């Protein structure tokens, strides 16, 4: 177990951030910065009550021009999200790419149905969780550990019963290295613009952002520098068909 002094030193010295900036559909690269609302700055959101927790932006101004591409995704497809430390993409010389390994935590994906995936306003949307990966106590492995080992990539599936139409994909990484008190957890998220095709008709239960998370949630305020038997990923249960 790390000493308190070591923990404080680590939290103070580490400031490496990350951006979800590339999407693959069944292995097909859609292009860097294509169809994703990426910010110029790679910093985190820490306030779960802020509208910035929805699709980022705000204190992290959006990169111009904002992509107007809507990515076609057949229901049931496997998506691969790719993260990197900066908008320069992969950099093998950067020890903090795709993210500093100390930034351990879960990775989560949500969908919200919208009339127009390029719409500016993202408040009041109804989100349902389609993917989560947290902590495996048996191997002491976090979702972020897997992301780092895989060069910034994480795979997840679009449920095959999702109704066709336009959606925003909210893909999120939560770094818990400073999460011993609130606000301390660092939330990184971007929203990708999707057109889901298929013949599904599911009506999942939904949540709103802000509102889905509270600062007191055990998966948000937590000391990860201890022996953990389990970890409770914040937010609702994952929707399944």
Automatic annotation (TrEMBL):
Keywords: Carbohydrate metabolism, Cellulose degradation, Disulfide bond, Monooxygenase, Oxidoreductase, Polysaccharide degradation, Secreted, Signal. The keyword DNA-binding does not apply. Its main location: secreted. Its EC number is 1.14.99.56. GO terms for biological process: cellulose catabolic process. Gene3D superfamilies: 2.70.50.70. Transmembrane segments: none annotated. It catalyses: [(1->4)-beta-D-glucosyl]n+m + reduced acceptor + O2 = 4-dehydro-beta-D-glucosyl-[(1->4)-beta-D-glucosyl]n-1 + [(1->4)-beta-D-glucosyl]m + acceptor + H2O. GO terms for molecular function: cellulase activity; cellulose binding; monooxygenase activity. It is found in: Secreted. The keyword Transferase does not apply. It comes from the Eukaryota. Residues 17-229 form the Auxiliary Activity family 9 catalytic domain. InterPro entries: AA9, AA9_LPMO. Has a modular structure: an endo-beta-1,4-glucanase catalytic module at the N-terminus, a linker rich in serines and threonines, and a C-terminal carbohydrate-binding module (CBM). Belongs to the polysaccharide monooxygenase AA9 family. Lytic polysaccharide monooxygenase (LMPO) that depolymerizes crystalline and amorphous polysaccharides via the oxidation of scissile alpha- or beta-(1-4)-glycosidic bonds, yielding C1 and/or C4 oxidation products. Catalysis by LPMOs requires the reduction of the active-site copper from Cu(II) to Cu(I) by a reducing agent and H(2)O(2) or O(2) as a cosubstrate. This is AA9 family lytic polysaccharide monooxygenase. It comes from Cylindrobasidium torrendii FP15055 ss-10.
